[in-house]
Amino acid sequence: MIGKISGRLDWRGTGEVLIDVRGVGYIVHVSDRTMASLPLLGEPVSLYTELLVREDLLQLFGFPTMLEKEWHRLLVTVQGVGAKAALSILGALGAEGVARAITLGDARAVQAAPGVGPKLAQRVILELKAKAPAVMAAGVSLSARAEADESVIEDMAPVPAPKKATKPDAGPARRAGATADALSALLNLGYGHGDAAQAVATVAGEEPEAETATIIRQALRLLAPK
């Protein structure tokens, strides 16, 4: 599995680019949004990738962040949504826009993607709404944009193994991190800080050991219109 490509941008086409990795060129399909964010030809570039394998076809799809890659993986699980349709949805909305549309049940936003009709958009909402909090929770730590790194393209010097250290009890820190991540995810959806913080605090008080995805899911229920 090819999970990431780092090299130099060698060519731009319609919906695809060629990345030169030490003399080997990889054609990678990207969304219009990703295409617009790429550097100039000849400059370093790095994309997370998903390899589509069929009997007579191998295709690479590229994403600027792991979060977008995770959403692409989830979108293609919906019946009728192929790899290119999923890329179209991400290109129209972005990772956070997809999370917002699915979580809030906004089928019209999904329908704005080229090639996605109303029935397919509604199916995306229905099939993924329950799964969205888990991706949102992971996305808090995955949303940093991937940047091309010369050390990845050129030969890297050996990195010494880190010394082992005794870890303190991470329980309180883990719980604090889960609530902070849940709050961040809700703010990204557009909820006000006060309402989001109150909902997260309520859930965390009732379920102190809850993971981030659970806090998000329960908080969304509290924030839903009565």
Overall description:
The chain is 50% helix and 17% strand. It has 226 residues and is an alpha+beta fold. A hairpin with a 3-residue loop joins strand 1 and strand 2. This is Holliday junction branch migration complex subunit RuvA.
Radius of gyration: 20 Å
Give the tally of β-strands: 5
Elements, N to C (H/E):
EEEHEEHHHHHHHHH
Overall mean pLDDT stands at 83
Portion in helices: 40-55%
Task: Provide the β-strand percentage band.
Answer: 15-25%
What is the CATH-assigned architecture of the largest domain? Answer: Orthogonal Bundle
Task: Tell me the strand order in the biggest sheet.
Answer: 1-2-3-5-4
Structural class: alpha+beta
Instruction: Identify the overall geometry.
Output: globular
CATH superfamily of the largest domain: 5' to 3' exonuclease, C-terminal subdomain
- Helix count? 10
Give the oligomeric state of the chains in this entry, treating copies of one chain as homo and distinct chains as hetero: single chain
Keywords:
226 residues, alpha+beta, DNA polymerase, domain 1, Helicase, Ruva Protein, domain 3, 3 domains, five-stranded mixed β-barrel
Put the structure in a nutshell.
This protein is 50% helix and 17% strand. The chain has helices spanning 32-37, 66-75, 83-104, 107-111, 118-128, 132-142, 150-153, 171-188, 193-206, 212-223, and strands at 4-12, 16-21, 24-29, 44-54, 57-63.
Topology:
Blueprint: E1 4-12, E2 16-21, E3 24-29, H1 32-37, E4 44-54, E5 57-63, H2 66-75, H3 83-104, H4 107-111, H5 118-128, H6 132-142, H7 150-153, H8 171-188, H9 193-206, H10 212-223
Parallel strand pairs: 3-5
Antiparallel strand pairs: 1-2, 1-4, 2-3, 4-5
Helix pairs in contact: 2-3, 2-6, 3-6, 6-8, 6-10, 8-9, 8-10, 9-10
Family: Belongs to the RuvA family.
Protein name: Holliday junction branch migration complex subunit RuvA
Subcellular location: Cytoplasm
